User: What shape does this take?
Amino acid sequence: MRIHQSSFLRRFSVPIALLLSIAISFCSCSLTPTEISSDISSSFNDEELSDILDDSDTIVMATINHGADNPPKDSNENVIFTYDGGTFEMPYYVSATGDATTVGFLLFINGQPQPYSLSETGSISYCHTMDMDTTGITQKFSFFFTPVTGMAGDTLDIVIASIYNPTFKPDMMQTSGYGNYHQILTASYEIYFSQDAPKSSDIDNTDPSVSNLSNSESELTNDFLNIDLLSNYGLSAPDIESLDSNVYLLVYLDGKNQNSNYAVTEDSVHVTIYLCGIPNAKYEVIPYLDHSPIIPSQKVVLKKGLISTIDFEIQADALANARTFYVIASPTEASTYNSTDIYAPLIKSPSILLYNEGD
Assistant: This one.
């Protein structure tokens, strides 16, 4: 198993754990969830991290652990699953403590969103939510799915991303943003295909509320580095060199950076997604409303000195009941360019409550 959030955890190859601390403010945060988790642990060794978590000024608000349950291993003790046709079952487990009262899961195969069910005859969805026993008791279950991609002989990444309290939405009275809720934590495995996955239909699954979808590239400017990235990531502005080993995702609504909620005052909201970073890194970019994709995943190949941009509009009528919006950039063929110094992660933008102000 490969763990993509923390070098502290990754060294031990243990089930992933999400530690939410009051050191991270509950106001809307400009960091991506991936970077928040990394900042908690990756800068410290094991003893230092233990001291930090035991410090009286730090309160651990929740923990989430999840991973494959007794996964198959090859002769080198590497975890690898095999798809032999039909419906695939992946035994899994999850445990939680503290405020993690619900946990949702998103699946991706070679970057593409993978719908699944939690039983052989259960409903199929891109995200299922589980109520948690927050005393840390392990809950076992299985993912059931027919792979959306894969040909005989392929070995592809399968990524499982947990979402912390996915049912939460700001009520705009007591809370106006998501705070630490909806952070993700990912675990990655490999799946070998002894048979082709069934061919998918060519039906366009774009949500009827989405229109004017387009993809483009533009020059990476100093203003984008020093203004846009700085305002979104809240640290020092990245430089050109840092883009060779990092990936950055930005989402703008009607040309503005929004991190918690956004009232749509016109007939539609214009969404702009920016992705830049590791040259030749391949991504599938997927926008979600209420944890379901609203357009087919958009294929992006990052290029040095360029920004990849995706634009579209969402009709205000689709936002009558206030909906959670976010974007996920999911890497494909990651093993071809990941290394000790370069890693292309799965990235989720901060969740935003979109609502029609006219309602």
